[in-house]
Amino acid sequence: MIKIKNKFSFRNRLTFGKLFYNDKFVIVFSVFLAFMLWVYAVGTSSKTENFLISGIKVEPPKLIDNLQVFGLDDSTTASVRVSGNALVVQSLTAGDIYISASNTDELSETGAKKMKLSAQKSGLKTDYTFSSSVTPSEISVYVDRLGNSTFTIENKVTASNYDGKSYMLGDMVLSQEKVTVQGPQTIIDQIAKVSAEQDVDETLVKTTTVKDVPLKFYNSKDKEIDKTYLTFDITTVNVTIPVYKLTEVKVLPNIVNMPDSLDFDTESLVSVEPSSLQVALMDNTAEINEIYTEEIDFTKLNLSKNQFDVNLVIPSSLKNIAGVKTANVTFDMSDMSTKTLTVSKIDIIGQTSGNLKMVYTQSVDVVMIGPKSQISAIASSNVTGVVDMSESNSGDGQISEENVKFNINSKFSGCWVYGSYKVSVVPYTETSTASSDNSDDDTDNSDGENS
């Protein structure tokens, strides 16, 4: 059998494929295909479709006289049904529709109002109609001018669940003392006070912070104000409740300038009123058993001046709940007596070699105080004055007034010198004859100086 090759079939296929390499053919073919697709789309979507557009933000209307609508925010939305070509309505979004007030003339006065809603086309797509009214058809709003005020927050937190015999509560502290309110001016004008209110039920044994205590707003008649149209920089505060442990501390006198060698029984001879004080101890503070008065200068104690009213020194870790600020310190001087002695022996210490000093004052009359049995026996020879030049600021060649302290013989350990005294000191060197030159002067000043 003779086989005949199909030359024409292969050649025809090759020729048709080459057409797509022809620019003019491709253009004509593309236009034809697009036209056919358009005809198909129009034919398949010619019917009208009803479609619901939801989540449309309700826009505030523009009002006169600086009035504005309160009660709208980003969560205030509405919905509306549209009808039209299926391809058009199905492509619509909430951004293509504008919903706002249709009754702006009724919103020209302050107060609570009903804002009626209507929809308008706002996008480029307009080939549709609204097939229903807006849902909801109206919303509650408040019309007014914008107000802004700041109020001090009152603390109305209550806490009663604690052991009043062992603990006490301090002044509560708010995390913020003020709140700023924005909203309708007429409503803000009604606010008379703002308070943080909560009842604390937990048992308090240490300082506690109560978080997120709500704020409440009241008018002048103590009626709570509706906060629907108000906004705030804060809506709650934290309240810290200090809790103090109650304790009793002993009150002791702080006596200074008492000679180290003095045998003076402060426990039996000194009384303090009050002798003890109830105080409150702050959290995390070590136990304190005693507190002191301010300083009492022992050198100012004598037979006629034996009582001192002095302030109490309260550590910062304690709270003085009794409110007592001073104490009366009394020295028992019933067995004491006094005597004046002329002390002639005065030593100088603390000098440097080659820069010596000498006492120009020959004697000092000092007032001695002590037990009657010792005062009757003490003599001038039992007392020695001491001038410490290491504490002096005098320069070479200068006569200076220096403090003098007194050493008392140990047999008279219950006696002390009342008051403070100074003596005149002059300089000299080892080669100087100042001591002999001043011998006449010493004679002339035999009475000495007492200051």
Notes on the structure:
By secondary structure, this protein is mainly β. It has 5 domains: 7-44; 49-144, RNA Polymerase Alpha Subunit, Chain A, domain 2; 147-240, YbbR-like domain (RNA Polymerase Alpha Subunit, Chain A, domain 2); 245-331, RNA Polymerase Alpha Subunit, Chain A, domain 2 (Beta Complex), CATH 2.170.120.40; 336-444, RNA Polymerase Alpha Subunit, Chain A, domain 2. Helix content is 13%, strand content 44%. The protein has 8 helices and 30 strands. The protein has helices at 7-17, 23-44, 86-89, 185-188, 266-269, 372-375, 434-437, 439-444, and strands at 48-57, 68-70, 77-85, 97-101, 111-121, 128-130, 138-144, 146-159, 167-169, 173-174, 178-184, 193-200, 208-218, 231-232, 236-241, 243-256, 270-273, 276-281, 290-297, 307-313, 318-319, 326-331, 336-343, 346-349, 356-359, 364-371, 383-388, 400-408, 416-418, 421-428. The strands form 6 sheets. Strands 9, 16, 17, 18, 19, 20, 21 and 22 form an 8-stranded mixed sheet that branches. β12 (193-200) and β13 (208-218) form a beta hairpin. The protein is elongated. The N and C termini lie far apart (161 Å). Mean pLDDT is 85; it is low at 1-5 and 432-451.
**The number of domains:** 5
* Cα distance spanning the termini: 161 Å
In CATH, the topology of the largest domain is named RNA Polymerase Alpha Subunit, Chain A, domain 2
Number of helices: 8
Strand content: 35-45%
Runs with pLDDT <50, length 5+?
1-5, 432-451
> How confident overall, as mean pLDDT?
85
Helix content: 10-25%
- Characterize the main sheet: 8 strands, mixed
Q: Tally the beta strands.
A: 30
Q: What is the CATH architecture term of the largest domain?
A: Beta Complex
